[in-house]
Amino acid sequence: MTPPWPDLAPPASRAHATPAAPPGLTWPPLGQSFAALGDAFSVPVAVSPLPDPQLVACSADAAALVGLQPPSTPEQEQAWALAFGGHVAALSGRSRATVYAGHQFGNWAGQLGDGRALLLGDWPGQHADAARWEVQFKGSGRTPFSRMGDGWAVLRSSIREFLCSEAMAALGIPTTRALCLVGSSRPVRRERLETAAMVTRLAPSFVRFGHFEHFSYSGQTAQLRQLTDWVIARHCPACVDAAQPALALLQWVVAGTARLIAQWQAVGFMHGVMNTDNMSILSWTIDYGPFAFLDAYDPLHTPNTTDRTGRYAYGRQPAVAHWNLLALAQALLPLIDQPEQARDAVDSFRPLFLQALQQQLGAKLGLQQTLPDDDALIQDLLAAMHANRSDWILTFRALAHVEENPQAALPPQLVAQFALAPGLLADWARRYRDRLRAEPREAAARAQAMNAVNPALVLRHHLAQAAIAQAEHGDFSEVRRLLAALRRPFDPAGLPAHYTAPPPDDAPPPSLSCSS
């Protein structure tokens, strides 16, 4: 059939990968499950290899998901750099760009698509995480969907995506994974002249809300049904036998998204650009652009300099997720009997999210059971933190040291977080200690449980910036050290002290453009 977009032919100047794998690197054959859907869903685009590729870092945890051994010698590192820098035809020779649409900052943006990412195929999974993992290059050159972009990714933003993908996985939050990061000498112009890089990403699927929007709003109902059936068969088999599979899929996505956003809120994560084309149908975190983790608690903070109205601020993420689910429901209406059924499915988001968030925050406070006044206790803590600009990570980590004894001194690391209005902490701490005495667990068991859900380390902006600064001078050692530390965010033993300290006083707050 004729694809529903104009001029899909890749540029004639597109470089081609070399025909064989370098010695020392093998991988399983790539399946082409998404490509089998047909040309209406994706178009062949050749990878543009990176010149002078260098392996910046590799995630051993992500490699294990697809049965790869990470490189351990300089020769193997060079083999990885060539392969995952786009120079090996057996890996990148069947790459495709997928088409989707989306709402960006609440406005319909029309047709979009993979403008700097290419899907290579899929590999068998080696663990229970997924039966198969799609493999994608990000930063591999122009595609028919690049619009005004050049298709490249810069080292700065690629380091941030690579590190945060693996950091979120270690925190137990569903996320696309980053197999490796390859740098290059290719110059790229953003706010300044930078160098290109490429991240190899893994996910059971890279399908987004926007894929459904594209086929629905362009009147391609047969393709909309085909995509829906494909996603259900691969990722939600329980929906197959439902009376209305598309409605069951929507309900599944609503529930998964409610859990995901609660997990984001619990660790203080701000996505920064929650457009519908950046929302995974699997309810996984996807597309790390101008993201950040909260330092001082401010529910209206957004790290995205483009977000002038604060649409994607930390405290507004749940409402935006609900809005995006409404957009997905609208896209699925041609496959659902009654519009009211889709609306009811999306209306379940708020109670599901609130329940999940209360569970997350209750666990952070060490509360094993739920009592009627717990929500007020949580909200009053957040209000006190906001008034004091308390550090999100350090405050919750310090709560594990609070003793039930009302005469005991509060831990100094907690008191330090409430220096602006200390009376708010004293007042709240009395209620918290009363509440702890209603808990069945011993203090030591409670503290251990709290330390298992309150990370000591997250990818703070200043830590990422330090790693980026060294990498831009050719030194990748801090990227690798930070990656190793982020693999165990709940265990600070042996970590450099500055990894778990608050940002330096002169560190600017996270403020990033979409090129980040």
Describe the protein's architecture and organization:
It is a single chain. With 516 residues, the chain is α+β, with helices and mostly antiparallel strands. The protein is 39% helix and 13% strand. It is built from 17 helices and twelve strands. Strands 2, 6, 7, 8, 9 and 10 form a six-stranded antiparallel β-sheet that branches. A two-stranded antiparallel sheet has the order 1-3. A hairpin with a 7-residue loop joins strand 6 and strand 7. Helix 4 packs parallel to helix 17, helix 7 runs antiparallel to helix 8 and helix 8 packs antiparallel against helix 9. The protein is globular and about 70 Å long. It starts with 41 loop residues before the first strand and ends in a 30-residue tail after the last helix.
Radius of gyration: 23 Å
Largest sheet composition: 6 strands, antiparallel
| Helix content estimate | 25-40%
| Number of helices, where a helix is a run of at least 4 consecutive DSSP H or I residues | 17
Number of strands: 12
Global mean pLDDT: 94
Instruction: Assess the beta-strand content as a share of residues.
Output: 5-15%
How far apart the termini lie comes to 38 Å
Q: How are helices and strands ordered from N to C? A: EEHHHEEEEEEHEEHHHEEHHHHHHHHHH
Low-confidence stretches: 4-17
Shape, please? Answer: globular
